[in-house]
Fold each of these.
Amino acid sequence: MTKPQIRPVSGAQYSRIHGVGGYRPVRVIPNSEVLEWIDSSDEWIRTRSGIAERRWAGPDESVAEMSIHAAGKAIAQAGITPEQIGGVIVSTVSHFKQTPAIATEIAERLGCGTAPAFDISAACAGFGYGLGLADGMVRGGNAEYVLVIGVERLSDLTDRSDRSTAFIFGDGAGAAIVGPSDTPGIGKLVWGSDGSQAELITQTEAWDTAFAKSDAVNGAGEELKWPALRMDGQPVFRWAVWEMAKVAQQALDAAGITADQLGAFIPHQANMRITDAMIKALKLPESVPVARDIAETGNTSAASIPLAMERMLESGEAHSGDLALIIGFGAGLVYAAAVVTLP
Ligand SMILES: CC(C)(COP(=O)(O)OP(=O)(O)OC[C@H]1O[C@@H](n2cnc3c(N)ncnc32)[C@H](O)[C@@H]1OP(=O)(O)O)[C@@H](O)C(=O)NCCC(=O)NCCS
């Protein structure tokens, strides 16, 4: 008797990004406002980070709300209907409900039917991680189109009295539709993690520890601090500059593309000095436009690459069909880089 065999699954031969969209909160926080919380200067913040202002979400600009706005734009640009979406991946570290995943609410409100929907936690590499999963789903035959969202309300995790982080983080959402393609539109993802450096960027305290403390000091008059993001800036800076430039080069090599063939370089908007150092390390020709969205958006973690991508396309700095090198890196530590065709 022959053994029963599972019917093979076949998906699209290639995938690409069909549409991208972003949402920026209404409220602008200029450096002058940050100076009300920390001892610093506009000049220091600009020269050390490249940031002039950031957006912070208001009460109505929830993780779901911002995601739905961004996704709506990406879906419209892709020219598909929400029912065609066969997967919703939301990358965030600032959605405060442990379960259910915020992705299911977003899928439902967008009209994605019964599409599988789940959240991932990969910090500033989250968009790249999501893109890699979506690419696999489309080519593996488990979805025709996948919605990838990077969304953060990092203002909720920012300690305004912390000089090393108060000026860096911003809020926003970015979304992309990944679907079938006749030609390769997403190169090999070079991704990874280094848990030995997990403490470099981390939440000050786990929620259970904070709550246990809250019980212990209840009524004792001690001030309780909401957990926030803490960062050891210098080692993160060195890691990003030295190690991430190598990862970016590996993504170029894996795609068979040279730096001069790029139509855009869209690194995670962590710090303008990190971007400048990577440009040098990669020997990126001056003719390649570089995303510098951080100046007006701050560091929005998982949202930063799609937000910067949308801005470059809207401003005409980059064009549909161009090749872009994207690289995300951050808390974990985690990273993900790939060459993609711009939608
Ligand atoms: C955060 C960061 C901008 C700080 O810059 P830095 O040069 O490393 O700053 P340091 O902590 O070494 O401090 C240098 C000096 O600036 C001062 N300083 C620190 N924070 C300051 C602030 N907010 N305003 C003004 N001065 C500040 C320090 O007191 C120190 O002064 P001193 O030389 O008189 O002692 C930088 O480390 C960085 O960009 N790291 C990477 C962070 C990042 O991109 N994270 C995102 C990854 S996802």
Amino acid sequence: MKLTDLRGILQYIPQFREKTFVLAIDGSIVTDDNFATLLLDVALLWSLNIRVALVHGASAQIRSLADDGKIEASDFDGTGVTDAQTLDLALTAANRLTHEILEGLSANDLRAASTNVIIAHPVGSLHGVDHLFTGKVERVDAELLQSLLAQGVVPVIPPLGFDGDGKTYRVNSDGVALAVAEQLKATKLIFVTSRDGLLHRGQLIRQMPVAELVGLLQDDAAGFGSDMVSKAQHAASACRAGIPRVHVINGTLEEGLLGEVFSNHGLGTLIYANEYEYIRAAKKKDVRAILLLIKQAVEAEELVKRTKSTIEKSLGDYYIFEIDKNPVGCVALHVYPEQSKGEVACLYVASSHENQGIGRKLMQFVENKARELGLRQLLALSTQAVTYFQSKGGFVEGTPDNLPPARRERYDQSGRNSRVLIKDLA
Ligand SMILES: CC(C)(COP(=O)(O)OP(=O)(O)OC[C@H]1O[C@@H](n2cnc3c(N)ncnc32)[C@H](O)[C@@H]1OP(=O)(O)O)[C@@H](O)C(=O)NCCC(=O)NCCS
């Protein structure tokens, strides 16, 4: 590992300290060769004061126990009917998996506890069919979970629910993870699966605001495939329940978890709660991030060079587009009040996040600002993104005469020969 990697990781630490991540691990991952590495990563998160609770599934193991014993299981994932013998299989599978997780955590010197924090009641009859031992999460004993987490104990939560009368029910682990994350007010819910992330019609979703995911689920839920639709639904519910970030990652990849948590462009899928609020005014501490962000574009002469002090002088003009608290884009709106004009400047989107509409959102954002300020015209100067401003932003070609006098003077001095683009806001 390079020292710069470590620096890259360290920048995330303050925002995650004392925060809770809920990891929802598919049963198939617990028996995967990479599981030991995943638990090592969990230990690393704990060492950085990030509290991690583990929820696990068991369907793959129920399936294999059923095959081994030549038993016909009535359901695998806790969504259908659980008959008595299937509940038996679920208990065996879940207990075995919990134990394996506890073993793995001990191997990493982590204290852990198997819990009975899911209070459930029977689902009952649906469409006239009694679901027998399938349970529905009624409540989560968040107090117990919080006290374990506060003592540095990793809670391990199996896909089983308990009622007050000593009965056990099989519950779906995605639903458990959602309820636990909600009750713990988790910062992240991370589904650890054997797929690369959420795929829709074969296309990996890298990042998506929850509203878009809800739309996809409404229009074409089948596109997620039967194995991932539950993750998509629970990811959407989690974001809507106030969990800002839901990730779906591949637990068989060595860097799956850390790569997702500690990088601007994770390997899996990120569903986030609300995109708009993540365009925000830049603060003094963001100046370095802006300089770093635009460095490449300045070198390629796409953007004009700016120094720390030039940005600081007009810091109030700058806005940042953040995903998961990481700046991935920026824009500035310089206002010329006398001419009632505004200039869109320093528009930049990190190459890792290009072609996702972020540039357009930033342009729209400053246009809205300009309208709020009652400006009559927007200007943009560009050497290499002229058609972008025209086709995506609705700008038309203007001339240097459109520039306010002070700006015109700098334009003439710069020798960049940028093209002038204008958009009337009236
Ligand atoms: C220009 C830039 C801001 C676009 O950001 P983005 O978030 O990738 O753009 P969007 O997702 O909103 O739009 C993508 C579309 O614009 C097109 N596009 C991207 N850069 C373009 C450019 N320089 N010229 C023309 N079209 C461009 C893409 O091909 C894509 O087209 P499609 O939707 O028809 O497939 C980004 O590429 C960038 O930062 N470039 C370097 C800096 C720069 O030139 N800034 C503008 C000068 S102030």
